[in-house]
Design a protein that fits this description.
The chain has strands at residues 28-32, 36-42, 51-56, 59-66, 86-93, 103-107, 110-116, 127-130. By secondary structure, it is mainly β.
């Protein structure tokens, strides 16, 4: 069933879909739409300005940094505090793509990346930052 998918889409010990060393791990869906991939990542609490997406050396990187919005005071008496701050980093091997045509949009905590598959003549490009709309 999964023979045609690049190995990044299968989670195993060698080519994990993302690095498990980070505390915040957004849920990600990856779809193969014949001519392109669609990557959707749930990033609740993040704003568009908190997120950076880059392509380099056949990998697509998603970075996010979420900082505390308010300072804790000595007289704050939290019983429980579950809203987290920190960083995320996800790395996807997507070697057969057209990096110049990657599109991203972010709305209501959902990052959607459209990643067109490449033509053979586009191989060899070095890297690119993706604008998120």
């Amino acid at each position: 069933m999964f023979e045609g998918l690049p190995s990044l889409f299968l989670k195993d010990g060698i080519t994990s879909l993302f690095d498990d060393h980070f505390g915040l791990q957004p849920c990600v869906d990856v779809k193969d739409e014949k001519n392109y991939y669609v990557i959707e990542a749930e990033l609740p609490g993040f704003s568009k300005d908190d997120i950076t997406v880059k392509y380099k050396d056949n990998y697509l990187f998603v970075y996010g940094k979420k900082e505390a919005t308010e300072e804790m005071k000595d007289d704050d008496h939290f019983i429980r505090r579950e809203r987290t701050t920190g960083t995320i980093q996800r790395k996807f091997y997507v070697g057969d793509i057209d990096e110049t045509q990657i599109n991203g949009k972010f709305k209501n905590g959902l990052l959607e990346l459209t990643v067109p598959k490449s033509n053979a003549e586009l191989d060899g490009r070095s890297g690119n930052r993706i604008d998120i709309k």
